[in-house]
Amino acid sequence: MSNPSADTQRDSAASPHISPFVNAPVNKVLKPSQKIDLYRLMMRIRRFEERSLRAYQAGKIGGFLHLYIGQEAVAVGCCSMMGKDDHVITAYRDHGHAIAVGMDTKALMAELYGKATGCSKGKGGSMHYFAPHLNFWGGHGIVGGQIPLGTGLAFAVKYLERKGAAMAFMGDGAVNQGAVHEAFNLAALWNLPVVFVIENNRYSMGTSQERSSAGHTLAERAAGYSMAWDVCNGHDVYEVREKADKFLTLAREQNKPSVLEIDTYRYRGHSVADPDKTYRSKTEIEEYQRTKDPLNLFRSCLEAEGVLTTEIIEKIDAEARAEADLATEFAEASPYPTVEDITKDIYWEEDNPSHKTSQGTIIFE
Amino acid sequence: MPVITYREALNQALAEELERDPRVFLMGEEVGQFNGAYKVSEGLLAKFGPKRIIDTPISEAGFIGLGVGASMLGLRPVIELMFWSFYSVAFDQILNNAANVRYMSGGQINCPIVIRGPANGGTNVGATHSHTPENVCANHPGVKVVVPATAYDAKGLLKAAIRDNDPVMFMENTILYNDKMEVPSEEYLIPLGKADVKREGKDLTIIAHGRSVIQSLKAAEVLQEKHNISVEVVDLRSIRPLDEAAILASVRKTHRALLVEENKPFCGVDAQIAYLIQDKAFDDLDAPVKRVSAIDAPQIYSSPLEKEQLPTPQRILDAALGVCR
Ligand SMILES: Cc1ncc(C[n+]2csc(CCOP(=O)(O)OP(=O)(O)O)c2C)c(N)n1
Ligand SMILES: [Mg+2]
Fold this sequence. Notes:
A: alpha/beta, Rossmann fold, 5-stranded parallel β-sheet, 13 helices, B: alpha/beta, 2 domains, binds magnesium ion
């Protein structure tokens, strides 16, 4: 990226964008400071992702890196509606959700570097972030594999008689995994408080929705299980909040599952390894950046609402960049795990020897 | 002789077999328009068209099962798994359906299907994407398992696998895709179940498969130069069928055996080989058989540690010195 801020630069000639959901009750109740916090969160995700991309390009991190740039309003909008007994699980494109639930970007960056100070001690990597203390259950590498788990989180919430819900995020390509459909049926059959969120960024790797999924809207598949469903403009964080709230409430109050398909777009390749040349045009990407960027749209709306000033905008941006730089410095200065660490964290019992009840060899040479 | 990569060797094998037999088709995620996630199928869509080079949704259970069904009716599907790690969502189709249908039909049906793709660690992608399931698959009578280590072997074995009348699990390696060597342009096949001595020696036999062969060859060189130990490296190439004769012949020659693999130790392929050696060549041994496998844990993400987790030339060397002591 030649100019990392180009995609969030203001187009002063454009008329202000006012979200049609600005007066939705969940948004109307927000104090100006809370609105600014939402904007800040989105900006922190973007700057974190840009910084991790640079670290990757500099050869500091390897493996897969699936960036969330362009999709920020989805995780931020949904996770901003979480109550204390609500839970989140997602796939490998998980950095946005991790930051949105409140994970520390230092530990996130250190994880990308494979350092012992990472959120999973360098054992999980980019695709496998976890923070159970923040009700964030990962970070899953196998397409669709997290959806039954999310359904299980909802089952547990209900079983424990808590008033909460689980949000299980997946991509548009994941709807074609068998496990997803089995989970849909179980959730509907047993009235589980789960919201299945499809982040439809239009492509699964290099395959467009038309080339991979039968039918029209993906969420419509919910009808086969008599589940509630809706589609949502994921470029507008206010709309995301409104629709997530509707289904979270349905889950918490009535134990009803639902499918929410959120239209969004990723600006970067599927992962950093994707040359991103064969399946979509540069013009398409630029068009999204110009007209639908979730940060631009929300900033414009907040300016029209009189909440954001140029001064605050610049301050937030500068702080987000500084935070990402700090995270990188932390990651670089941190140590790697040791060879002895490789065989730790495999079994609960081995890590808690005073409670050990089983016998015999469990780790082999 | 032309020098080509392991990737190109696979590509040529696919192209030649697609050309030869109209029943052969290639199916998988991103194999067509995207030219393959790892470019193994580059150019095949342009050459053979969308009837035979078929892009799929992310539905491994669906399209692998479909391949098994189509093979029952006489087609010869080659199914690409973007990573062998994703076989687990299609486990039932592969290891219940493909593996058992011949037996359960009393021999009336056969499944000439090839399931291929990379199966390796060492690429810094974490536990979910680093499985090496050759031991798991080989545990199921009814399927065959092939793990080529070089471009030459990859080409000859893939062509033989496609012509084989049983289900063949063909496991490649992303780290080897760019490895180059001379490969003849004339057609050749390598029979499944035939091991290859990749280096001759007289003091110690190292038995390996996949990338562990390459690591073992590196260790063998140092053992010769620095320790004056002459190592024979036997590349299994096929796990099932297994060339027991080649293993035993080499062990009877050197009287010492070290087994190297990327599998985790418990029930790894080499557990079977160790049993074979003690059963059939016990009296030929001058030292206990030793193994080098991956450190017994899910694959760690952290790159420098993952390198240590897999059999490194250094770990192989240390173990070899132990066997030769
Ligand atoms: C079962 C399985 N098959 C294939 C893959 C390889 N893979 C990883 S991501 C991906 C595309 C997923 O697309 P989508 O669900 O739309 O999510 P997005 O990447 O767009 O967020 C594929 C094919 C995988 N991880 N798991
Ligand atoms: Mg997608």
